[in-house]
């Protein structure tokens, strides 16, 4: 099983465990803030399933209907996660409004908060793994899942602080107030996830640092060519699509030009895992004298 799929399967298992712990905390305390925390964990489970399905689709090889592959399936998973976050926030606000109108004291608050702390440690550790490995594998679905889990850790911490304040002061209205704050926070995290995914769906360019590294690689490995220009690159899930024009001397043979292309492609693939490269070879009179200088 590919590494990304293993991580997505692990996310589903972690999400189910954390959901069980937080649901137990809510059941013991009757806190609407802890209910909101548990509702967010339901979203975590749903998005873990979506990420797993998307990664399976993205791993499928190119076919006649999808000649460039299925890599963008991961972005749809991240967008779906953002939508589910918005739905969860609306449900939380509804519960918070009801509790604000009739605030109730909590039962077994100490045990409930201890369970939330355990769930947060599990979520935090797994969020760190997902973001770090997701970036290494260039998986938008895994990174989005990890970022949402970290947002969940932050909201759990805020809920715990608010509930401790309610216990110390006796202000039971702090419970629904914290639930509303959770809703606002996860709405913001949902917007961040969706915004990042839209860039991928719209074929946003790779970061300037990556483009600069590509220019350096081409410059250092295209010996024999005149120049390279019109470099473009974009991410699509775990794949990176790169294309540019390579200008060669007019008297150069096709075999020699092909050897240069092979050398440059090998260097780019070594520097950028999952690279898909298209090179358009042009004669010397097509040079623009404003592109990549070949060393």
Short description:
This protein is an alpha+beta fold.
Describe the protein's architecture and organization:
With 295 residues, the chain is α+β, with helices and mostly antiparallel strands. It has eight helices and four strands, in the order H-H-H-H-H-H-H-E-E-H-E-E. It has helices at residues 3-29, 32-58, 73-101, 109-136, 140-169, 174-201, 208-221, 254-271; strands spanning 227-236, 239-247, 275-282, 292-293. Helix 1 packs antiparallel against helix 2 and helix 2 (32-58) packs parallel to helix 6. The longest helix has 30 residues, at 140-169. The radius of gyration is 25 Å and the shape is elongated. The protein starts with a helix and ends with a strand. The model has no long low-confidence stretch (mean pLDDT 80). It comes from Ponticoccus litoralis. Its main location: membrane. The chain crosses the membrane at residues 41-61, 73-93, 113-131, 151-171.
Summarize this structure as a short list of keywords or feature phrases.
2 domains; alpha+beta; 8 helices; 295 residues; four-stranded mixed β-sheet; Alpha-lytic protease prodomain-like; 68% helix; Alpha-Beta Plaits
Backbone structural class: alpha+beta
Whole-number radius of gyration? 25 Å
Looking at CATH, the homologous superfamily of the largest domain is Cation efflux protein transmembrane domain
Main beta sheet strand tally, sense and closure:
4 strands, mixed
Per DSSP E runs of 2 or more residues, the count of β-strands stands at 4
Number of helices: 8
Helix percent reads: 55-70%
CATH topology of the largest domain: Alpha-lytic protease prodomain-like
Sheet-strand content, in percent, reads 5-15%
Alpha-carbon distance between the termini? 42 Å
What is the 3D shape? elongated
**Spatial arrangement of strands, main beta sheet:** 3-2-1-4
- What would the average pLDDT be, to the nearest integer? 80
Given this structure, which CATH class of the largest domain is correct?
Mainly Alpha
SSE topology string: HHHHHHHEEHEE
Subcellular location: Cell membrane
Protein name: Protein p34
Domain Cation efflux protein cytoplasmic: 207-284
GO cellular component, one term: plasma membrane
